[in-house]
Amino acid sequence: MKALSQGLGGRVKASLEQALRLAPGHADAHIAFGTYHAEIIDKVGAMVGGALTYGAKKDAALQHFQKALKLNPDSAIARIEYANGLAMLFGEARLAEAEKLYRDAAACKPADAMERLDVEQAKEELED
């Protein structure tokens, strides 16, 4: 909320749009943009976060998360952020789908230390 009140929401959106114009196949940029949409809606609601102020949309969030997984199908963090997005956007209604994404993330084979942290984070989410 602090970032939004400081006018950073529009700047973040513009930066993510620019990143995707320059590199449309950048999976992490899609993850970030999906998270942007989900967090805006979670914090200020679909009406204010949507067409009225920030251009955040549930469908756009889902499309970006799905695109990220298509681009990087072995990504634990894409699954984690997708699961977090589902929780923010739909709550209990899509909890089973979010839990499956956490399980899938926990089962990913990490390619490096950062991915190992992502896998461990997914395991912690499942324990909560």
H/E element sequence: HHHHHHHH
The mean pLDDT is: 90
Q: How much is the radius of gyration in Å?
A: 15 Å
Oligomer: single chain
Largest sheet: none
What is the count of β-strands? 0
The helicity comes to over 70%
Kindly describe this structure:
Helix 3 packs across helix 4 and helix 7 packs across helix 8 (113-127). The mean pLDDT is 90. The chain is globular. It contains eight helices and no strands. The chain has helices spanning 2-5, 8-22, 27-44, 46-52, 58-71, 76-90, 95-106, 113-127. The chain has 128 residues and is an all-alpha fold.
Brief overview:
By secondary structure, the protein is mainly alpha-helical. The chain is built from eight helices and no strands.
Topology:
Layout: H1 2-5, H2 8-22, H3 27-44, H4 46-52, H5 58-71, H6 76-90, H7 95-106, H8 113-127
List keywords for this structure.
128 residues; mainly alpha; 8 helices; single chain
